């Protein structure tokens, strides 16, 4: 299908030739409430699909700060955004450094912050980046290639218990202990350095378990990716800190792609909206219960059927948004 035809169907365009279609583009723009002259942060620029539309909407006079820890993606986004007029400031960094980034740019407070979490289709489909269980490349998975630790380092150095914990916690994989044991057995013979080596090891654990809905290595690869990139570490604290940089009326939009991430976002947003987020009995609750924000999405927004037809990869996306009071 041509990109223009897809846009007519879904309101979205594929990032030229990369396989990445921005998820819930219309909803992102609606919830961010982009206004001309505003200051916005796209904390996960990727190839700039969302950024392009935001930049257009905030003209004249708007500023868009675009962060990504993946230098290659950011460079591609810059090329793409050259054709769009407006002030776009690319920053190659971890969004968790947002306080420093905004200080350096003297760009506080801001009117909106977008986080489209996780890995992009571009990263997944760039087989040499080692994110895919279908690849025969090095088992890498670093979003930021200047970082030292790769997925191969984890697989070859963590203890059996540590591996099992990572695969269980970040992959929600029931067979984590068996997979960890199989990895240890194999790495005694030779280091596990390629994606397809690991795929074969995990697949053998599942061989006798019959038909699987998803590839048996999916959860193990997800777990290693989250661990290598420390995707969940400090996310809760980051959301609270980033909220502090919003103007009154400013909005935050977060798209999460798995339940672990979405749970953290849900809890942080509810806390900021003054709701109880603990499991303690009523009298023992110590939640601040101070409503600093209004929830714009009491329940998460998910992609509609048209979008899912055009972009099945969007199926697990959950969008949440809040507005600072
Ligand atoms: C799902 S993609 C974003 C796609 C983008 N919205 C678009 O339309 O092209 C997620 C991007 O966030 C980046 N990313 C993930 N965690 C990050 C972090 N902690 N700091 C900065 N960038 C991050 C990834 O490198 C990836 O490019």
What Rg, in angstroms, do the CA atoms define? Answer: 21 Å
The fraction of residues assigned to DSSP E strands is: 5-15%
Morphology call: globular
Topology pattern, helix = H, strand = E? HHEHEHEHEHHHHHHHEHEHE
Instruction: Output mean pLDDT.
Output: 92
Total number of helical segments? 14
Task: Indicate the low-confidence ranges by residue numbers.
Answer: 1-12
Structural class: alpha/beta
Give the distance, in angstroms, between the N- and C-terminal Cα atoms. 43 Å
Q: Ions, cofactors, ligands: which are bound?
A: S-adenosylmethionine
Helicity, in percent? 40-55%
Q: What's the total number of strands? A: 7
Instruction: Please summarize the sheet with the most strands.
Output: 7 strands, mixed
Strand order of the largest sheet: 3-2-1-4-5-7-6
């Amino acid at each position: 299908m041509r990109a223009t035809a897809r846009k007519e169907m879904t309101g979205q365009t594929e990032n030229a030739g990369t396989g990445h279609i921005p998820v819930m583009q219309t909803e992102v723009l609606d919830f961010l409430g982009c206004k001309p002259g505003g200051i916005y942060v796209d904390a996960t620029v990727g190839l700039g699909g969302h950024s392009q539309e935001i930049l257009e909407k905030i003209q004249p006079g708007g500023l868009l700060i675009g962060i990504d820890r993946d230098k290659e993606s950011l460079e591609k986004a810059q090329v793409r955004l050259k054709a769009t007029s407006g002030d776009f400031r690319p920053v190659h960094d971890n969004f968790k450094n947002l306080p420093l980034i905004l200080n350096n740019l003297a760009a506080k407070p801001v009117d909106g912050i977008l986080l489209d979490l996780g890995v992009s289709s571009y990263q997944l489909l760039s087989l040499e980046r080692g994110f895919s269980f279908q690849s025969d490349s090095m088992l890498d998975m670093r979003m930021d290639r200047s970082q030292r630790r790769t997925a191969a380092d984890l697989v070859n150095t963590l203890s059996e218990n540590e591996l099992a914990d990572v695969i269980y916690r970040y992959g929600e994989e029931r067979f984590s202990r068996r997979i960890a044991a199989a990895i240890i057995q194999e790495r005694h013979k030779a280091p596990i350095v390629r994606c397809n080596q690991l795929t074969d090891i995990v697949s053998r654990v599942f061989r006798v378990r019959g038909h699987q809905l998803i590839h048996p290595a999916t959860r193990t690869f997800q777990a290693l990716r989250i661990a290598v990139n420390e995707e969940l570490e400090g996310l809760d604290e980051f959301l609270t800190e980033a909220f502090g940089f919003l103007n009154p009326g400013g909005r935050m939009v977060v798209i999460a792609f798995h339940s672990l991430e979405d749970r953290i976002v849900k809890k942080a947003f509810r806390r900021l909206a003054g709701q109880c987020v603990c499991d303690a009995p009523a009298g023992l609750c110590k939640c601040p219960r101070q409503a600093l924000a209004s929830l714009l999405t009491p329940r998460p927004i998910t992609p509609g059927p048209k979008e899912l037809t055009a972009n099945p990869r969007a199926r697990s996306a959950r969008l949440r948004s809040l507005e600072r009071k």
